[in-house]
Amino acid sequence: MLDVLSWVKKRTEGPAAPKAQQAQTEGLLPDLRDADPVTALNELSGWLDPAGGSASADPKARSEILARVQDAGAAHVAAMLAKYRASTDAKQAARESTWKTLIQYQAHLAHALGLCAKALMKAAYEDAELLAPAEASTARALRSCRTLARICFAHYVSVPGSVWRLAYTLYARAEEIGSAASPVKADADPKKVTTVEQELLRLLMFQMSAPDMMAAEQIEVADRALEQIGEGFTLRPPGVADNPFCFDPDGDAPPRRALGEQEVAPALRYFGPGVGYDALEKIYKQLTEAKTETIKMFGMDIAPRAQVGTVQHLLAFWRAKSPYAPPTRAPASGSLQIVHRYAQIWKQLSDAQHSSGELTLADESDGLPQAPEHWTLREAGGNELGAELAQADGGTAKCGEVVGVSVNGGSEYLVGMIRRMRCEPGGSLHADIAVLSRKPQPLTLREVRKKDEDSVISDAASRQFSFASVRAVILADGSDSAQGATPPNLLLPAESWKQGRIYETTQDPPRYLRGLQVTRHGDDYVRATFEWLPGPG
User: Fold this and answer.
1) Residue 41, Cβ neighbours under 10 Å: how many?
2) pLDDT for position 358
């Protein structure tokens, strides 16, 4: 595990945060509940070396101290992660400082807990009374690894191999001694019960959730979902290969999707979502049937649409077959102009289509156009573009958002979605953009009111004064009748979507369409299929 500390040192080079004076292991932890999170984590870090690094210390006493440190630091880690998620517009140095504080503290905590768990497991072979503390310490170490992974994922950094090696080793020792499935308490909440196996599976399934294809708040929702339904995940016995994911217990590579019948590797361990998938489907049904403003399944601090979108994402990536197969790409060069946020994209497309710049009430609500960001094109292939971002911390970019893209300063914009983000070893941030449409059509639609639909605005007034107008972008209009062609689909503002609703275009003559099914929930948009209708009825 020592190399994870070396990894952290390389990732966080620069002036070190001030260390708290090392506390005496026999003392009591100070009350840090009201302390500033940075101060609190620095203070708690002072307890890690004497508690976790002294080979002569009593391992049971060390585990108790480390448990108190972990519990005391959990709220501060959560607060700093929330600050990091919310500070996309902050200066890069401030965001980097927040992340460095988090990764330094959590890496040292995981290291200390790992050493302690190994020592207790070893001692438990000779002293059965140490078995229960060993099980709890091991579960806590694995939970700490998952928090470390969450911090890495939020920064789009890969989890270091030493973390996977530690997790596999800890589980193997617990399984060998017959303790992997024993119920233990490894949380400040005494009502919560877990097992070593469940904690390993939560960590493994986190990696298999494609975190590099989720926004920061979705990564947080995914972690909370893992906590809720993780007891349903399944780890198969050695030699049983009937689950979709696998890992090498003797290696340090992250878990991966199994290759199926073509892969014969008795040493691999296979795992999957098990009945946890059924539980997630039930959650998704509840979320999609609830009113948006009432959604708080995973907390009130996460936007409802982010919660729905995350569960939809997890359901897709936990299936036996991956929903995404990356296309073959080749090196490319050039510049990309990137427009963020759905309203700004629609405005950019509309202005390019109507050079006269027609002004509507809907246009005025957008404010002034935002200057596009300039990214560097690095790869291209299939329907994807690979780009290096202008800001190392990503700026306003986030996975899952739609973007307008102009190549090499051209006047025409295509519409894409940031599919994946990753931080390279040198610190540069890259994004993969899936091209949704190379010929997007910005339209203004009007909701067609049914005769029996309650509304303070009549259908005639809506048509005359552009009330209930909706700004849509047609990605594919269905004109391509070739086999395998993309079905008609469009983008709409998230608040304007209602399944089955009929819209009228403002073109002359008007056309009518009906929204069918959402294929993706975004922060400020939905992507949905539709069908053309011969009339409004």
Assistant:
1) 26
2) 45
Query: Measured between alpha carbons, how far is 526 from 294 in angstroms, rounded to an integer?
Result: 19
Q: Which amino acid is at 412?
A: E
Instruction: Give me the phi and psi of 169, to 5 degrees please.
Output: -65, -45
Domains contained in the chain, CATH given: 2-207 (no CATH), 236-272 (no CATH), 330-437 (2.40.10.220), 441-533 (no CATH)
pLDDT digits (tens, 9 = 90+) for 315-330: 999 999 999 988 999 9
pLDDT tens digits, 117-131:
999 999 998 888 999
Q: Would you state the structure tokens that stand for residue 474, as one six-digit string?
A: 């047609």
Stretch 251-259: mean pLDDT:
94
How many Å apart are CA 6 and CA 385, to the nearest integer? 34
Phi, psi of 273 (to 5 degrees): -75, -20
* pLDDT of 244 above 90: yes
In angstroms, the CA 277 to CA 112 distance is 33
Could you read off the pLDDT of 373-389 as tens digits, one per residue? 999 999 999 999 999 98
Q: What's the predicted TM-score (pTM) here?
A: 0.87
Four-residue CA torsion sign, 93, 99, 100, 101: positive
Between CA 104 and CA 451 the distance in angstroms is: 62
> Mean pLDDT across the chain, nearest whole number?
86
Between CA 416 and CA 414 the distance in angstroms is 7
Show Cβ contacts of residue 204 under 8 Å, excluding neighbours closer than 6 positions. 233, 245, 247, 255, 271
The answer to whether the beta carbons of residues 220 and 302 sit under 8 Å apart is yes
